[in-house]
DNA sequence: ATAAAAGTTTAGATTAATCTAAAAAATATT
DNA sequence: AATATTTTTTAGATTAATCTAAACTTTTAT
C-alpha cells in the first residue's frame, strides 16, 4: 500500500518516463512536484526499496512493471473522475484537474468499477487522454501534433497536451474542443503559427506554441 | 485549514457531543478512533488552539460554533457521497460507509455544490440520516425509536442508528429499509422483543437490540 | 477521609515527509 | 587534463501524528 505522497511521486515519475526511454532525473522530479532534490532522493529510495522503481545513484530512475501497473491504476482513476466531473456534474474542462488530483487517491476498487460502468466505459477523458482499462490496457489511437499536420487535410481534434486553465480557456474561446474538425490552410514560416479553419469557418491564426499542444487525428 | 486527521477528530467529537450536553471525554474519543488517550490529548490541544473546540484539562471537550460549522460540512459531504454511491452507482447501503469516510475529506466547495444539485438536493442519506444544507441547517423530522413505538399504529421506517454491515444486512434480509411501513403488533415483556408486521405481511419477531436501532415516524 | 482505582496528561521516542547546508559525483569548460 | 559548474546525495533539523511509560488528577470505595 502506498501513501498519498508516494502515489504522487510514482505517478509523476511515470509521466516523466512516458515517451522517452531515458531514466528520469532527480531534478526533473523535484521540478514537477515543486519540491527539493534532497526530498526526492529520500522518496526514490523508498519507492525503489518497495520495487516500484529501480534507481541507480546519480543516474536516475526507471519504473518497474509493478510500478507501471500501479501508476496506470492512478491514471485510470484520475481520468475516470475527470470524465465524471465534466459529463455528470457539468464542470468546465479547465476546472477538473485539481479535484481529480484528490479523487485519484481514494482507495476502493469497487468504486472505480462502478464509476466506470456508470460512465459507460469511456476510453478517453475530457481532454482526450486515453483511460486505461481495469487491466491497465490503453486504447491508443494515432495522434498527430497539430503543428506537424499536413496542409488542407481534414483533421479532428482528439486531445490537448496541456491541462492548464489558461490554455483550455483560450481553446474554448477560439472554438476548439475535443471532436472539433480542423483544416490547416497555411503555415507561416516566420514564427511557425498556422492559419486554421475551425469547423469549416473562416481561417484564423493559431500560434506555434498552441499548435504544439493540440493533438489531432486524420 | 484542517488536516485529514484533524477533520476526523473534529467529526468524531461532534458526533459524540450530539444529543447530550455533557463534555466529551478523552477516553471516549480514543475509543471511537481506536487510538490512545495520550494521542487524543495532543490532538485536542491542537484543535482547541485553533478554536474548533474548547478544552478544560481533565474535564473534557466542547465543540465551538466554528467547530460545529466545520463538522457539519464534513457530515454533509459524507452523506451526500453516500447518497451518490447508493442512488447513482448502485452500491448496497451496507457498502458505502468506508468509501464515504475517504470522500468526505475532498476539498472542493464547487464539487459539493454540483454533487448536491446532481442528486436533486436530497435531505436524507440512504440510512435516513439528515443531510445538512450548505448553510449547515438540518431538516429534522420527529423520529421515534421503534422499541418505544405504540402498538397497532402505522409507522414508516425513516432511519437506522447503526451503520454496520452486519446490521444492515440483517435488515435487508427481513425486508426493512428506509420508507418501509411497519406496525408493531405485540411487545414481549420478557426480553423486549417485538412482533412486527412489515409492509402488512404476517408479523415476525424483531429483537430489542434491533428495535433500538430502527427509527420510525408516524 | 484516606486509600485504591480509573482516567488524563506529560515526557520522551518513533516514523513519514519535508527542508537547508555541506559533501560528493558527474558534466562542462578552458 | 585540470578546473569550474551543475547535479545529486548525505547529514542534520523540523513538524505532524503516533506510541509507551511515568506522573498527576479525579472519582470511587472502604
* Helix share, percent of chain A: 40-55%
Helix vs. strand class of chain A: alpha+beta
Task: Report the total helices of chain A.
Answer: 8
* CATH C-level class of one domain in chain A: Mainly Beta
For this structure, the CATH topology of one domain in chain A is SH3 type barrels
**What topology, given as strand order, has the largest sheet of chain A?**
3-8-4-5-6-7
The averaged pLDDT of chain A comes out at: 95
Biggest interface pair, residues each?
Answer: A-B, 19 and 18 residues
Please state the overall shape of chain A, judged from the principal axes of the Cα atoms: globular
The biggest sheet of chain A amounts to: 6 strands, antiparallel
What is the H-and-E element order of chain A? HHHEEHHHEEHEEEHE
Fraction of residues in β-strands of chain A: 15-25%
Task: List the main descriptive attributes of the protein structure presented here.
globular; alpha+beta; two-stranded antiparallel sheet; SH3 type barrels; homodimer
Explained architecture:
- 2 copies of one chain form a homodimer.
- Chain A has 218 residues and is of the alpha+beta class.
- Among the domains of chain A are: 4-63, Winged helix-like DNA-binding domain superfamily/Winged helix DNA-binding domain (Arc Repressor Mutant, subunit A, Orthogonal Bundle), CATH 1.10.10.10; 144-217, SH3 type barrels (Roll).
- Helix content of chain A is 41%, strand content 17%.
- The first copy, chain A, is built from 8 helices and 8 strands, in the order αααββαααββαβββαβ.
- Chain A has helices at residues 4-17, 26-33, 37-49, 65-87, 97-103, 109-118, 165-174, 208-211, and strands at 53-56, 60-63, 144-145, 154-160, 181-187, 194-198, 204-206, 214-217.
- In chain A, the strands form 2 sheets. Chain A has a 6-stranded antiparallel beta sheet with strand order 3-8-4-5-6-7.
- The model of chain A has no long low-confidence stretch (mean pLDDT 95).
- Chains A and B meet through helix 5 and helix 6 of A and helix 5 and helix 6 of B.
- Chain A binds a DNA duplex (30 and 30 nucleotides) through helix 3.
